Amino acid sequence: MSTPTNLTRAISVIAHVDHGKTTLSDRLLEYTGTVAPRDMVEQVLDQLDLERERGITIKAQAVRMLYKADDGKTYQINLIDTPGHVDFSYEVSRALAACDGAILVVDASQGIEAQTIANVHQALEHNLKIVPVVNKIDLPQANPELVRQEIEKVIGLPAESVIFASARQGIGTREILEAVVREVPPPTGNPAAPLRALIFDAKFDAYRGVVTYIRVLEGTLRKGARIEMMQTGKTFEADEVGIFRPERTPIDELAAGEVGYVIANIRNVRDSRVGDTVTEADRPASEPLPGYRHVTPMVFAGLFPTDSDQYQQLKEALEKLQLNDAALVYEPETSAALGFGFRCGFLGLLHMEIVQERLEREFNLTLLGTAPTVEYRVKLRDGTEVPVDNPDHLPNPAEIESISEPMVIATIVVPSAYLGNMMQLSQERRGQYLNTVYEPGDRVVLTYRMPLAEIIHDYYDQLKSRSKGYASLDYELVGFEEANLVKLDVLVGGSPVDALSMIVERGKAQVQGRRLAEKLKTLIPRQLFEVPIQAAIGGKIVARETVPAMRKDVLAKCYGGDVTRKRKLLEKQREGKKRLKRVGNVEIPQEAFMAVLSLD
Amino acid sequence: MERVHSLYLHVPFCTWVCKYCDFNAYAVLEGLIPAYVEALAREIEVAAADLPVGPLKTVFIGGGTPSLLTGPQLNLLMDRARSIGLASGAEVTMEANPSNVTSARVEAWLAAGINRLSIGIQSLQPGALRFLERLHSGGEALDAIRIARAGGFANLNADLLYGVPDVDLSMWLETLDAVVSEGVDHLSAYELTVESGTRLGQEARTGLVTMPDAEAQLEQYWAAAAQLGRAGFRHYEISNWARSGFECRHNLAGWRYQPYLGCGAGAHSMFRLDDRVTERSWNIKGPHAYVKQVAQRGRPVDGRETLSAERARGEAAMIGVRLLEGTAAAQDFPSERRQLVAAGLLVEDDGQVRLSRRGVELANQVGATFLA
């Protein structure tokens, strides 16, 4: 089983969404005989059902392949599949830190996209050797030659090093494996040094507890060793050490350079944090590996059961989900309008959607989610600073000295024809223009500094719709910046609905208030009585709309023969009402709580 | 099982199926009528043998167009009803199309034992009659009332439709006035309702026909209510008015949640079991299949549902509130009642509740509230 260190490789596959990363990984597994073609469920590496349905990777996966190269030697290639979405960029960075090289996949018809650039930057930061691949060359609209030039020009990799491939048809697979063993350097860590293994993922197994995915960078991890997590200081006994082929296969030890897993009776993924360093408790390393970051959520939203009887079930579901999702945070929240629920923090909008979908699907809950917001930092006149992740909790304006909001650098890659649209959109969203770079293939890389709050409010959808779907986006948090912000309150039927409050720029507040009231008017169904909708800033009403009362709802006839049908009709009416949330005496549908997201 | 005192007989044949109609009715099947009447008579016999039916306090022959039946055919059906047992003073209603009302027929109907005639006038306006695809004129419709009265019917109803496109308020009230002046004892005024699956439904969906808005429909409704009130009619159900003592007892029994036996194609029955569970069943719809199945297996029941005592109470309340004098059926729903009273849809008096004016306009909202 053991492979000399100089024949070991650890690589990742990096790509923009949909460029064929997972399909390529599948081909590599097949070609190296790691998985027999007949056992090949399409996309072996994506394991969650949701991942398969959405065609995205949420959690990193790892697998060991053995490859007999042209030089006659058999190499051990460890492949780490990384998440492919900006929400999970920290996980990507840790997965890359566990590698020595990366296969960069670029779609032959799409060319370089925002995430391609972001991924390459990250790979280069980790000093990874990059093997560039142009994929999907078999598609009719493919232009591999142009993409090859783009790779040289934009990324600075020599055009002649680019491999043409079609993962779907298995073209180029051998060339890629050859390039990996030739170009990617072998690990350099000393197997005799004190243990330092990098955690790049962790997964909760109902029977075994947490399975921690690691790469040993220095030293050797043996079964039975007492291990210590260097960030948390917690110690565990390594019950099982193993590798992925691709199913878990126990072995006696993992030496420097090797990728595998450790099971150590860890009951919560929080004790096995991505980016932490595993060392030996008896002979600890002096320093942890660099780059650990405590993951903090970027986006917050309230989750409430539509049926308040489901509160306890929601609580238990969140507890279970959190065992497997260290990035998910939550705390109980009480909304005057929506009752008891939880304020949850997510890595981004996709993460939020996935969590809500899993809660509903796997735990059979019906949830009402409030519009996502970012976390603001509010400096009070008394000198203290408080974080505010719920617009309704913004302190009284009289107490506020200043409010800061999280800022990002957004990178947009778009065909030049849509440059004007992208700039206009970004300007509308309080973006500060930074830079434009023209690329081959008539494309532009545009960078803006802008508030994260603007990004999560429908920016991506707008970006897509104003570029006919061509624009791609990546962003990176760069800190907080003071802004002139106010709270916009919404009153429905005369009473404030806390879950509809939002924090907006003062200059746009009145317009936003008007748009929100108009939008809510279309979303709130007619009730028995007239329902006024008002938007207010600091107690001053800035907009008012009215949902007129229901005028007529009566069946002319109801005789013996009709009763069953009529009753079913009314029962259906009533059933529909159950999906509405009653706030005061007004029934409000879920979409209304999301209205604040799209006010353009 | 609670004893059943009401019988409904369905006659699914029409000379022409009007474009707004979504009842179980068929044109060009006249050839089937004799066999159908035989089957219907047989079903009554079988049902009466199986179920605690009679004595009958009400019989209602509806359709379709039952006035297409001959005297002997009606006699056969009424003989069967009589063999179940007809209470003295029983109300026996038949629906009639104005085109069929002649003195000879009126004589035959009375002879068969029918003592209440419900005439489908719908409208007197030529444009509206054309729009509704009625085959009679306004004058013929008024003649039908006159002939029935002269022939000896002491209990007459007219069915009218309001909210017909291009019939404005004054035209509608003219129609109403003319029908009332002709001397009917009972009046049903229905809003012309667009049902999906009808030709009118399709025309409305495709924009060929524009229906009056809710405001205009309610204006015609309340104006009719006022005019009928002045003429001495009592508004006793959402769409029904009667001179004192002429309320339709058959329909009243239904709104009061009393059981009934329905025979004929697509007819519904409702039974009350001893534990207050309600059982509803319905016959197979198609007339051909009906005839065949009666011959094979007696009652051609095609589906049934049972409602727990609790759901049945909700249903009883949903139907009961349609009676404008009020109902005690909502007694088991104190919190719903409070909520509806607070919303101004129900008025509480004497332990009963009744719809307010606004409650009449939103009766479905009220009804739905009682369906848990």
**Unreliable residue runs of chain B:** none
**Overall pLDDT level of chain A:** 87
Please count the beta strands of chain B (DSSP E, at least 2 residues each).
14
Distance between the termini of chain B: 25 Å
Number of strands of chain A: 33
Strand composition percent of chain B: 15-25%
What order do the SSEs of chain B take from the amino end to the carboxyl end, as H and E? EHEHEHEHHEHEHHEEHEEEHEHHEEHH
What's the quaternary structure here?
heterodimer
Secondary-structure-derived class of chain A: alpha+beta
Q: Calculate the terminal CA-CA distance of chain A, rounded to whole Å.
A: 60 Å
**Main β-sheet of chain B: number of strands, strand sense, barrel status?**
9 strands, mixed
Please mark out the parts of chain A with pLDDT under 50 across 5 or more consecutive residues, or reply none. none
Write the layout of secondary structure elements.
The complex is a heterodimer of chains A (600) and B (372).
Chain A: E1 8-15, H1 21-31, H2 49-54, E2 61-68, E3 74-81, H3 89-97, E4 101-107, H4 114-125, E5 129-135, H5 144-155, E6 163-164, H6 173-183, E7 196-205, E8 209-218, E9 220-222, E10 226-229, E11 235-237, E12 240-244, E13 248-251, E14 253-255, E15 259-263, E16 277-280, E17 299-305, H7 311-323, E18 329-335, E19 339-346, H8 349-363, E20 367-369, E21 376-380, E22 385-388, E23 400-415, H9 419-428, E24 432-439, E25 443-451, H10 452-456, H11 459-465, E26 472-483, E27 485-492, E28 495-496, E29 502-505, H12 506-523, E30 531-537, E31 540-547, H13 563-578, E32 581-583, E33 586-588, H14 590-594
Chain B: E1 4-11, H1 33-50, E2 53-63, H2 71-84, E3 86-96, H3 103-112, E4 116-122, H4 126-132, H5 138-151, E5 156-162, H6 169-181, E6 186-191, H7 199-205, H8 214-230, E7 234-237, E8 240-242, H9 249-255, E9 261-263, E10 268-272, E11 278-283, H10 287-297, E12 301-307, H11 309-320, H12 334-342, E13 346-349, E14 352-355, H13 357-361, H14 363-369
Parallel strand pairs in B: 1-2, 1-9, 2-3, 3-4, 4-5, 5-6
Antiparallel strand pairs in B: 6-8, 7-8, 10-11, 11-12, 13-14
Helix pairs in contact in B: 1-2, 1-10, 2-3, 6-8, 11-14
